[in-house]
């Protein structure tokens, strides 16, 4: 009977864990986060978008009531790699989902491990590049501090679930470990 209970618990954890492939496809119910936190997320998202696009964006919008955002660089009208950087909506949502998952499985080690494996590994840990515009930098720093404090308060356990992925800023930005794969793919495409 005990093994049946363990099996049912394991199935419940597996069924409840979403099959995320990226922080870009994660969503939360906006009302699960207070208005001021969502507003600071949008400010940080906007500042990071501008920074990743070297100050030249063709789209840079964020609605704190719905958590719908849009970021595109003017240089090539494509989105930078938001999922690779902190201070972006994908990472705020990822960190919040991770915290909610940990809370849901508060006394369940297997459940928390599933949270870490299924969500935590997709949350970014790279800081966005600094902006060369000093007024933007101070605004970004202020929003980043507020957003970081909010994220830290709700996701202290998530910090151990993320790993250092290394990266560089470009439009679109690609982390170091992915840059080699992109370069190799481009080389093979030419052959």
From TrEMBL:
**Start and end residues of each stretch annotated as Disordered:** 126-158
Protein origin, superkingdom: Eukaryota
**Record key words, sorted:** Signal
Q: Which InterPro entries match?
A: DUF7707
Question: Pfam families, per this entry?
Answer: DUF7707
Keyword Signal (UniProt): yes
Q: Where is the composition biased (Low complexity)?
A: 130-158
* Keyword Transmembrane helix tagged: no
Domain DUF7707 per the UniProt entry, residue ranges: 26-127
Using the record, list the residue span of the signal peptide; answer none if the entry has no such feature. 1-17
Would you tell me the protein name for this molecule? Answer: DUF7707 domain-containing protein
- The scientific name of the source species is Clonostachys solani
